[in-house]
Structure formats: structure tokens, C-alpha cells
Amino acid sequence: MGTLWVLSLAGALSLAGALAGDNRTPRAVTPAALDTGSTREDPMGHGQGLDCREVRKHNSSEWCRFVRGNPDCRLEGGFLDYLGGVFCVFPPGLLPLAVTLYALWLLYLFVILGVTAEKFFCPNLSAISTNLKLSHNVAGVTFLAFGNGAPDVFSAVVAFSDPRTAGLAVGAVFGAGIFVTTVVAGGIALVKPFTAASRPFLRDAIFYMVAVFLTFLVLYLGRITLGEALGYLGLYVFYVFAVVLCTWIHRRQRGDGLAPPRPWEPEMPTDAEERESSGTNSGDYGEEYRPLLPYHETSLHILASALSPLDQRKWRRKPWYWRLFKVFKVPVELVLLLTVPVVDPDKDDLNWKRPLNCLHIVTSPLLCVLTLKSGAYGLYQIQGIFPVWGLVMLVGSVLAIIIFLTTTNEEPPKYHCVFAFLGFLASAMWINAAATELVNILRTLGIIFQLSNTVLGLTLLAWGNSIGDTFSDLTMARQGYPRMAFSACFGGIIFNILVGVGLGCLLQMTSSQLVVKLEPDSLLVWILAGALGLSLVFSFVAVPAQCFQLGKAYGVCLILYYLAFLCVALLTEFRVIRLATA
Fold first, then answer.
1. What family is this protein classified in (predicted)?
2. Phi then psi dihedrals of residue 449, to 5 deg
3. Which regions of 404-563 does DSSP assign to beta strands (E)?
4. 183 φ/ψ angles, rounded to the nearest 5 degrees
5. How far apart, in whole angstroms, are the C-alpha atoms of residue 494 and residue 306?
6. Are 577 and 571 in contact (CB under 8 A)?
7. 498-508: per-residue pLDDT in tens?
8. Which residue of 160, 219, 290, 376 is 20 to 30 Å from 531, comparing CA positions?
9. CA 86 to CA 303: how far, in whole Å?
């Protein structure tokens, strides 16, 4: 169903894009990028510096030459040349086939992001926070928020790194914010009417409105300085401090704890502000099948079982659609199991798999050097003779042999926590590589359909990155925790906008250029920022006005608001709504 939905959306956007004129998007440019020269055309009529979206206006026989000769058509980073593939490899008559394949690959990239973040990135962050002995509140607003928002933040950082895709970052950050605070929050109120936690809601809403106002101000000024970028990150640090302080005050007022729940009541967290992940342990049913007598597995058997992404007992219990989706995820999970170690503090052995973890000593660093800058560093040859990836493999092999000879299969070593940091780094590189491909393929689709990066960011990128939060929050609400799910709607996106924009612009700055210029040339950017601010003001007023009693009427209003915003955004993109010019 998701594939058919994306394809039908692509077809609708293609038809609307053909009927619409070109629409410029906000661009983030450094001052050095302003001296790229004026747009001009060569005698053959092929653009030198023209907008790459002009390619469809040329004859189909000139598409490949236009893409190859136009600097604006060069995709930064990534392993695949999507523009060259669609305009040079596929014949013009097979353009719908190319779009279909790209749409399927786009869906699979979202699957890669979700699997990596859920099963590898978040568990390692949880292990790191446990090893550092952080409280639940601090871990929730730092490591857990980073784990949940990793796809959004990495997508924003990658998009801000290229001036031509900055609109994707603006659209995705604002678009995901509107989607989560209206559709997801409204869905929670529809599924399970509840009473919202007053202080956490007011605190998160105020911080988020401040973040949106700062972003609106930066767009209005047209540039972001080093101090402003650091201010975004500083505001998030202040938010973490506020969460910790509010939790401490709340516990002092309540006498350092709550009474234990009754047998028929679900066990609630001691503080409504704590957002603990509600996932199931991968070792379900393991206690039932544990042998009574001691049994020592061979290293080969441990390696084979650790590399198996399928659980036969769980496979038999699940419905057919779960099995079908699992088949699509198996290749991704297998590659991730080979390259990303996972430390699980909830298991007795901390998920120590000696043969596999020794293999990770080789594969994880090799993955990092081959994905950093799309393999540019890994393929570099030292003195023109020996490649960097070969050196990494050699050193990793020596360390793996030493660890294998000095450890046992039954007991993890004292330095096993180091594997959590290695797994965090490896999974982050996987997410960054997938986010780079995601941004490039969205820009390619925008060029094909003559759509702005902003509308692609607020629709496809925002929806794709928010789909996991949507299902997890609605499931949490159905299970009897609507307050926790509602708090997660506002708390999680604060991290996304402050760290996504702040870190994205900070990494784009250099020692000689400490200013990143933002050029919101499209009316859609202002509609997007205004709609997000208006939705936050509506909730900030409506929720206390209802004495924090949120029911179906509130949910319906939020969903209708999002549908109205989406209609206005699309009409603006296709120039049905435009500013009157003198």
C-alpha cells in the first residue's frame, strides 16, 4: 500500500508539475558561493549555471548533455548518480519506469533508516547512557532523543551541506513539526481521550515556539552566523537543564516517588516527563527455551545464530503481512548485523558474541572509512601505493585475533562497553549514508517533476521520517499511555529543529566563512513557518482552555488544520496562490 501511495503521489505531482511554472526554493549559500558567476548559456543552448529543473523544457535528445554539462545538476556526495541514470541511462520513453524504480528505492531507504535507528543506533545509545550512569530524564532528552531523531537530524545536516538542497532541510524540519504536532497529536486524542500533563506540555510548547521564532527570524534576516548556530545548540542544552530541574522539583513535591500501582493498574512512570522507549526485547521467549543443563556452544554455532535475522518461533506466530515486510528487511538486517555491534545492558551476557564481535573489529572501521565522504578517504592510497581501507583491515584483523585469543564465549570482557561506542559510530555512518542517498533521490525527483525542494521536504521527507514516530506514539496511546505519547510529540521535535538546524549550519561553516546565507525566495517557506507557529499557538491556548482534557474534538480540529495547510502549501507550490506583483 505504501508503494502504491508513493507512486500515485508521484504521478499527481508530475501532472501538476507539468502544468505549473518553475518555483524557486530557499537556498543556503556561504559567501564564497556567491561568486559562482552569472547564469549564461553556451552557443548550443545548454545551460552553464542554469537551474537543473530546466532540463525537462529541452528536447529529450539534449537531456543527457544538459545534465552532464550543468554544474547545478551535480549531486553532492552519495554513491549513485541518480540524475545521470534517469536522463542518460534510461531512454526518454522509459522515464515512468525510472521514476517507479526510484520511488521503490526511496521507500527502501526509509526502511534502512528505520531499521538502523531502531535496532542498532538506539540500543547502543541506551547502553552508553547506562554505562555513563545517566538518569532516565537526562537520557530521554539526550541519547533517546538523538536515537529517535537520528534520521531527521542526519537528513537535515546532509541537506544543509549543499546550497541547492537547503530547501529540503527547511521543509523537512518544519513539515515534520506540523505533521507530528497536528496529525500525530490529534490521532492520540482520537484514539484515547486523556488529561495532558500540564507542566511538561507548557514547558515543551514554550521551548518549541521559541525555536520556531528563532528559525523564522533567521529566515527573515537571510543569514545565520556562528553565534546563532551555537545559540540553537545552547538552547537545547538549556532545555535539557529545564527538564532535569522540573523533574527534580516534581519529585521533591511528591515525596520522591509514587505509591506502587494496584494489581489491576498498569505501571506508570514516576514522572510524566520521562519518555521511556516501549520496545520488546529481541530475546522474547528465550527463557522458555533455555536448556536446563549447562551447554557450551561452539564459536561457529554462535556466529551462525548471531547472524540470523529470523526468529523461527516469532515467524510462526506473526501474520502474513509481518512476514512479507520482514522478508524485505532481512537483507538490511543481515548487512547491519555484519557491520554494527550491539551492546544490550538488559541481557546477562550484554549480547556478547565473541566470534561476531571480533569480526566487528574489522568490518565496523572498514564501514566507517568506506562511507565517509562516499568512500573518498577509504579509497585514498598512502604514498600512491597502499589504500587506506587495506591499512584499516590489516590493523583490525590484528586486533580481532588478539581479542579472540584473550576472551571466552561465555563471559564478556571488561572493555565490552567500547563495542557500544563502536556500534554507535558504525550505525551513525549507516544512517548518514542512507540520508545522503535519500536527499539526492528527493532532489532528483524534484528535478524530474519540476518541484521545489521545500515541498518535497514537507511531504515525502517529513512523512517518511515521521512514520515511525506516528506508529509508536499511537500504539503507546492504545496501550494506555496517551500522556507519554502526547509529551513525546512535542519533546522529540524540539531536538530535531534545534540540533538539525544548528548542527547543519555549523558544519557548513568554515574557518574563513562563519556566515551561512539563507535565501527564502519562495512564498511557501513563509506559509510553512507561519502554519507551524499558528498550530503551536492554537495548542498552547486550546489545551489549557480545556483544562488539559483532550478529546476527539481537539483531535479532529488538529487533523483538519493539517489538511487545510497541506492544500494551501500545494496550491502555493503550483502557483495557484501567489503574491501579487506590481
1. Belongs to the Ca(2+):cation antiporter (CaCA) (TC 2.A.19) family. SLC24A subfamily.
2. -95, 0
3. 515-519, 549-550
4. -70, -50
5. 37
6. yes
7. 888 888 888 88
8. 160
9. 41
